[in-house]
Structure formats: C-alpha cells, structure tokens
Amino acid sequence: MGKRQQPQLNPATPTDDEFSLKATFPKIGNISAGSFNLVEPMNYLYIRIVKAKNLYGGEDHPEYDPYIQVRIGNYRASTKHIEKNPNPEWNHVFAFSKDRVHSSMLEVFVMSKGDERDDIKGRVWLDATEVPIRVAPDSPLAPQWYNLESLNNGMCVNGELMLAVWVGTQADEAFTEAWHSDAAGVSGECIVNTRSKVYMSPKLWYLRLNVIQVRDLETKDKNRTTPEVFVRVIFRDLMRMTKISVSRNHNPVWNEDLMFVVAEPFESPLVLTLEDKVGNKEEVIGKCLIHVGSLERRLVDKPVDPRWYSLEGPTKQPVEGQNGENNINLLTSKIQLRASLDGGYHVLDETTQYSSDLRPTVRQLWKQGLGVLQLGILNATGLSLMKKNAQGRTDAYCVAKYGQKWVRTRTIIDSTSPQWNEQYTWEVYDPCTVITIGVFDNCHLQGTDDGKTQDSRIGKVRIRVSTLEAGRTYTYSYPLLSLQTNGLNKMGELQLAIRFSCTSMFNLLQIYSNPILPQMHYTHPLSSHQQVSLRHQATQLLASRLGRSEPPVRKEVVEYLLDYDSNLWCMRRTLANCHRIKLVFSSLENIIKWVGIICNWKMPWLTALVHVILVILVLFPQVLLPGICMNFFVCGIWNYKTRPRNPPHMDPKLSCISQTLQRDLEEEFDRVPTTCNNQEDLKFRYNRLRLGAGHVQTMLGDLAAQLERMQSLLNWRDPRATGLFVSFSLVAGFVLYLIPLRIMFILLVFYMLRHPKLKSKLPSSPSNFFRRLPTRVDSLL
Questions:
Q1: Cβ(572)–Cβ(656) under 8 Å?
Q2: How many domains does the chain contain in total?
Q3: Is residue 378 within 8 Å of residue 496, measured between CB atoms?
Q4: Domain that includes residue 168, residue range
C-alpha cells in the first residue's frame, strides 16, 4: 500500500464579500390595502375556465371527450379531459405572467381527446390588450358565456363556453390555485406539485403510559412459579418495552413510564402485549388494544386515575359460546395502566435553540398573541445547477416553517434566478422564536415517487424574531450555503423581506419574565433522553402527515428544516462551540489583562487612580452598588450607536469551516451506523474520538479534583490540613471581629496591588495549601 497523503484543510475559505449579508432595495409596492406590501407587484393574465354546454348532440355531432386548451404566444395550457359529457365542468384557472407574454391574441380551444391526435371542435378568440384590470382582488369577476367559433370560417359551431379573463396580481385569491406559466415552462403541462400551498401541522400530543401491575397472571406453564414478565407496547412503527418485573410472581409490578408522540386524528391503536421470557424465547401471555382517542386529556401535572384493562388471549381463534355466538378469548388476568394525553406540554419537534413555537398542545392554555410576522419571499439569484444532465437545470421552490404553519411557494421551472414574490403571514406568541426558510430543487415534477428520488437541498436561512425591530421592514439578500463532503459551497442568494409588527409593547416586554416552556415542563420535567427520542418521533410523524398532502411536503424537506440529525457528533461543531466559548470569554480576558496591567504597575497613573477609587468605595460603601448600576447604564448607552442593524445570518467563520479537515466532513455526513468501508478512515476516526474524549475526561477530572479539595477542608480526610484550616478559621474569626471589615478589605486590596518588586515569583501560601489537599483520585482503579 502506498503512502497516504496527509489530510488537507477544507479549501473553501470564506471571504467577507462572498458570504456576507447584503442589503437590497426592491421595488416593493402596495398591491392591496393592508396586505402583500412586502413583495414586488407582478401582473398576471388570469383565465378561469368554468364549464361548457351543448357541445354535441344528434347524429351530426357525435360524442367525444372534451378538454380545453389555452394558447397565448408560445404558451399552451390544457385542462383534464372529461369522458363523454356534453356539459362538462372544469373550474380551472390559468395564470400567465404579463412580463413573459408578448402576444395580444388569446385563444381558447375546445379539443377532442383522440387516440392518435386531438381534434379542434371550436374556439373562443379574445384580444389580450382589452382584458379588464382587476384592481380590487376581493371582488370576483363574474364569468360569462361565449359562443364557439369554427377554426376555418369563423362561423358559430355547436356549444358555448363559460369563462372569465382578467389581469390581476399575486394578491388575487385565484393565485394559489392557478396553473402558472412560469411554473411549467413553455410546454405548459399542468403539474400539481408546482403550486404554492399553505399547510398546517397536525396537533401533536404526548401520550404517557404508566404500566403499573398485573393481577392473576396466567402463564402457559402452570408449574412456572417465577415468571420473567414484561410488557411490550407498540404504536405505529414504534416499540417500547418495560423491564422484567422484579417481583417474579403471579402479580408482577413495574410502575414504569413509556411515552409516545401521537397526532390528531388518532388513527393507530395502542397495542400492549404481556410476554414471558422463557429461556431465549418470548411467549405472549395476552394482549390489549387501546384506542388513543378514548384516553383522558391531562392539562396539569395531577396524574389521572389508573384503570384496569382486560387481556385477550394470544389465540386468534374465536371461542364459541353456549348460544353459538363467537366470544373473545378473555383471560382472568388484568393489567393496571395509567394512560393519558398530556396536553400541558409543548411537543418538541425542533431543536430548542431553533424553536418556532413554544405553546402547549391544548388551546385553553394559549396566551394572547403579541404581533404579526410578515415574510415576503422575493427572488433568488445565482442558484447552482442542481440537475447534472446534458443541459443542466434548477427547478427551485421555497418552504418556510414557523409555528404550526408551513408554506410552500410555487416551483419555478428551469431558472437559476426565480422570481416568486409571494407573501405569507404568521401570528407571533413569543418573540424568542426562529423562522426557517429553505430552498430546494424539485425532483418530482412529473408526479413520480419511486421512494429513492429526493428533493435536493440548496440552502436555508434562519431569522430570530427577537432580533427584529418592531415595525421595521428588513430587505436583505441572504447567502445560501451548503456544506458537503467537498467543503462549503455557495449555492446562490435568497432575497427576503420580513417585518415584525407588535400589537402591544407592554405585553411584548412582559413575556421576557415568563418561563420559556409551559408549566408542565418544569413541574413534571422530561429527561434529556426522552426529549431526544420524542423529538425524533415528532419529526417522523410530521413528515408522514405532511407527506400525505397534495402537493406533499417531502420527508427530506421536513427533516432538513427541523434539523433532524443535529444531535449527531462531529468535530466541526465541537470546534465551533469551543470558538463560541472563546468569543464569550474574550471580554473577560480583556478584564483580566486590564487587572494585570494595574497590579503590575505598567501604567502607574492608572494604578494610583484605582487606589483612590477603592479608598472612596471603602469610606463610602453606599455608592458601590449605584456606581455599578450607573456603569452598566453608561456602557449600554455607549454601545447603542454600534448596535447591530442587520439580522443575523449563517456565518462560515463562526462555524469553523476553514479549519475543518476533509475527513471531518466525510465523518459528519456519514450515517449511523456508518457506511464507510475504508478501515483506515474508521481507525482514524476511532483514535481521534478517543483522544478527544481523553481531553474531556482530563478536564472533568480536574474539575472534580478542585471540588473534592474544597470538600476536604472540613471532612478530616487529611487531619493535619483540616486542623490547620480549623485553627485558621478560629483566628480569622477573632481578627475580623476586632478589626473593621473596611480596614481588612482595603489592606487586602493594597496587598494585591503592591509593587512587582515586593511580589515573589513563587506561588502563594493559600494556593500551595489548597493544592496539597487530598482528593478521591486515589480510590479510582
């Protein structure tokens, strides 16, 4: 084997200009009063095809399968065909962008669906320049009947067509349901999953199941006196088990809590099986089915009353009764459960640092809204070509998530600079929340879903609401960054307009004193392991429910916006967190350096000034706390002029991209269990993980040793050291009683600020004494 090359740093080193936030100045117009004022107005030519009548009849006009085709310029769009109906109804809307249409002739054809080719049965011709402009989107335009004309001689033919044509903007109520020319290209196929939609997350509940005990246990082996019994709980594709009962008798007791995440409407039952472990096998004793919707809903931390449930036998054969009826094979054994739907919790479907909603499940515990968050998704520029075919193309769409509301823009076909100009609104209940906007490439344009094709990630943007000034409109271009195994790539830029409007400033300020999570999280807290497990359950449940919508929100989209795999370890995040801690302590380091300058008399005038200030504080201690408060006030006012004016964005430098090795990126994108087949890479990861864990182990050991030394001052582990400390405490008590505290404080400060010539380079006596105290490290193996 040849010599392996040394790992190189990631070549993608970010620059300030390439990955920075850029202010933009879009031509935002007031499309309609009070709404859609964060996006640029876009004019569309709307054609609503309602229905037709009397298309054929009699021997001269045979039956056919009619459908409508709209032609304007190079664009063609068609409705679905309806089989053998002379009076079909479509109620379909087409929207053509006025900027892309350069023709004044609008033709609407009634077509006949054929096996080889489609025939034209009639048409309606309209002048697009004379179409009325709909100024008020709230007042719908009434459709009217048009006679069909022959394509050859212009004579009227059999049948009439009801339609409406107008010019409107994206504020029109028909915008979301319309077929868009910019979302289907020139060919004009009516693709369903390219439309913009609004989705609502299902109501999520925590299902708490407390398995208490079983009475009158019936085992298959009547002579078995010490059964090893446990309970297996299955809900959907999840399975949880209790431990084997410690009381190995015919009345086993567990008293264990099992938790699941369920969503309304409740579709799957809760299946409990009582099993006995016999050797290497597990024998089913009985089972019980519980309908989730019948469980009691709990709003406070008071537990619900336990109930006894009957167990059915494991046999699937019905038992015939005396009257010939089929009875359920019930056992005399009963299981006691305490099952409830805990609505006082907030079901965590996101990581806590990126939460967009902190409300409990039940609406009765919700508080009043604080304001409105408006988001305008304007456009994107410089998107990378995601489909690596012969020509290359990108079919981009955006998905935004805040609270229980998900929104999806329409898909712009084959464009690296798509123009969406869509606006959405959310109600804000807590300002300390984050809205997430992701950009994806649509890989399901033809409606095919083989389970392997996934929508590609282009990038995402996070904006914390609390960092936005109330009433101000932010218009910025956010860089779309994608971290891949080959390094950091800039996929383009996304231009957004966002505004947070506050209804009551008093209520907004009051929320800062309230707990972040609902009361149940503090009175009956969940463990960290439960939080991670339940969050993964909630993510999978949301992906399943939203994937059943039309058009669906794909599983990979839901997991990307909710940061499904954020709990996995990687070297880059570890370095980034260490860098964050270093930045926070940088100000403390400056204070320590400043104190060192004063103590070492590097600036004698400053040291003398500190002596004077300390004497004043000692002689007049009542000015100490007011002076500290005034210092904070002056610092806050001084920093106001340098306050950040831009919303935060993803910073590659803070993420330590340039310091990441190629191996680190490969490990970060590896799955669990690993898919790496290179034994050398696996060995490198394992050895590095052991080295990193060794550093953490040493740090924890040092911290434990310092705490144990403090404990050893009074526990007489070292009788001489404890005797010295107790004697010193006695003498110090008398000295502090005889000498005023002010004098002792000023003498201590003067001693610390003594000139360097009077200081020794050796450690001080208290430091030497503390380091000599015993620890429990001697007891470790």
A1: yes
A2: 4
A3: yes
A4: 44-195
